[in-house]
Amino acid sequence: MLPKSVPALDQADSTVPAPQQPQLRRHLEEVRGSTAQIAEVEHQIASWKRRQEDCERIAAMPGVGLLTATAAVATIGEAMVFRSGR
Asked: Where are the domains of the chain?
């Protein structure tokens, strides 16, 4: 999570030169916006995972997280179409 403010920009004796501060603030806002978008996408993926029994089983394995479990199910699809588990 990003801080609400950046001390280096908020201090009167900032180490960031004054002409670069507005640009740095804009970039910080872009990062905050991207972070919010990423959080929303992760929420949507987690919601989908909870409705998929296969995802839940894969995610229960040690070391397997949300993205790996959902990517595996999305890539493999229905595992029953394979003749063998090997």
From this structure: 1-51, 52-86
Kindly list the distances between the CA atom of residue 69 and the CA atoms of 14, 26, 51, 65, in Å, as whole numbers in the listed order.
Answer: 45, 35, 13, 6
pLDDT of 2 over the 70 cut: no
For residues 46 and 55, give the distance between their C-alpha atoms in angstroms, rounded to a whole number.
10
Distance separating alpha carbons of residues 17 and 52, to the nearest angstrom: 52
Cβ neighbors of 84 (< 8 A, separation 6 or more) are none
Q: Return the H-helix or E-strand segment holding 61.
A: none
Nearest to 54 by CA among 36, 74, 39: 74
Q: Look up residue 10 and give its two tokens.
A: 């908020």
For 5-59, what is each residue's pLDDT tens digit? Answer: 666 666 666 777 888 888 888 988 899 899 999 999 999 999 998 898 888 989 9
